[in-house]
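We treat protein structure as text, and this decision shapes the records that our systems exchange. Because each token names a local backbone shape, the row as a whole describes the fold. For reference, a complete record is included directly beneath this paragraph.
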Amino acid sequence: MAVTINTKNKKGPIIDPALCRCCRSIKKCRILSAEYEWMGNKEVYSDMLMDCFGLLLSHLDGDNKEIGICATCVCRLREACAFRRQVLQSEEVFMKAKLEGNKDDSQYPMEFKTEPLEIMEADSQMDEAEDVDQDEKPLVNLIKAKKATVTVARRRSVRTTHVKSDTMKSEVNSLSRKRVNMDDLQDDTEIQERNKLIPGKMKKTFNREEMAYTNTVTIVHNSYVCPFHNKVSNYYCYYCKDQFTNPNELREHTMTHEPKTMFESMMEHKKIPKIDITRIDCRLCQEKIDNLETLKKHLTIIHGLKLHPITNEFLKFRLTLNNLTCTECKSSFPYFDSLKKHMAEHFGKFICDICGACFLEQASLRTHIKTHYKIDMCFPCEICGKNLKSKYSRYLHVATVHEKKPTVNCYKCDAAFLSHALRNKHLIEVHGDKRTFPCKLCDKVYNRRKTLMEHNRRIHLKVYRHQCDLCDQRFYLPSRLKEHMATHTGERNFRCEFCDKGYPRLKSLQEHLRSHTNDRRYKCDICNSTFTQNASLKNHLKSHHQGYEMESSFN
């Protein structure tokens, strides 16, 4: 098996395949002794193993394919190092308090946290199972029921409290000497009156997802940032799903909606929202702001709004008509789809165990994993038997091909069409759109952005994902690969209806059919002779006009 080393990855080399020294799996791995970048920090995994566990791995200067670490083990190692840092920081604070002579625990800041109900119940069950005999089970069950009721009240009442004021220490100490039983506090009014004795406001503990959610809602409600959806390289209004190709029109349209009444209810569960931050001005006043961090400070200091001290609550974009720039690393991309995939390198939390690829959403990871196992998701049409790749593709196929229903809607009026080409024609003729997308690498011009993307991938980027198993040829479309396989098997499945000749490729049959229809589309520029096939014109030029080079239009 050939070993490939990807050195184009800006974050470090990738070896495929390699042996993971942490779990002994054979998959795409990183090198233990190499330096990588993650979240703006440098990391060397062999050093992290030494610092965290004191493990000195051997033979790290040997063959690269034997000193790897897979993506799964990298994540577990990062978590272990983060936990080690947390313990060391807590110990440092504890020792500092002891050295300052604070023998009384209540004299330095403490955090009181409650575990979730399920964890507390599990712990109590384990303790009781060790200490209680079988004959005492009824009594244990009664105690469990009481504890569960008390724990619910405890979860409502206990909050994270920091003791900061020296003037209130005596009151706190007296409170602790009274040994108030929290189990007896079941009334919220009693809890509130008791909390008045504790200095500072009662704070609720949030996880990062909750903090990101509340920050995003606050920012969208009180600024002119523009949330949006996308499909391929088209933009959709976050609130009414209207479609736009021009980001300026998208921003102007979004201004017609009121985010405070719509945004929070339309946020999708576990999906990071995409937000255009081209304009970030404050909605609450006339302040002009061009930086997200400046907006946060403005909202908290000037308007008194609460924002949690975190960053990267959502995916930030600055949408433009031409090249798009990443807001994190300033890399440039011609299409939004390629920029969105790039953002996974900065914010991807879901990692493929097989190849180490990162994804923003778990659904995208599940779709990606199917490509490794070559899981064919076939959804056959019940009318003609054609296999489609998804239920939605099958629906569109049945609606457009068999039922002739217009499924492509105009996003500027109520008209509907059978194809995107007809809708584009309607946009140009009726609404005056200038739907021209020129290629920046050649002189080709297209009326659809998707067609331009396919042109770039096929002609300039040479993205040929479908490779023949019997030779080295690659193809852009799977249908072209299927036609090519006939050259190996000798099959001639494309037959002429006039003379019954067989051809391995559809294109060859189409060229042959011109001989029956007398379609002589290829013309010699020198003697004006015409031919039905391009190959015939080439042979004519070689034999009759030696030294003459054909123009690229004939290729």
User: Anything to note?
Assistant: Residues 112-204, 550-555 have pLDDT under 50 and may be disordered. The two ends are 38 Å apart (CA to CA). Residues 71-99 form the longest helix (29 residues). DSSP finds 18 helices and 27 strands in the chain.
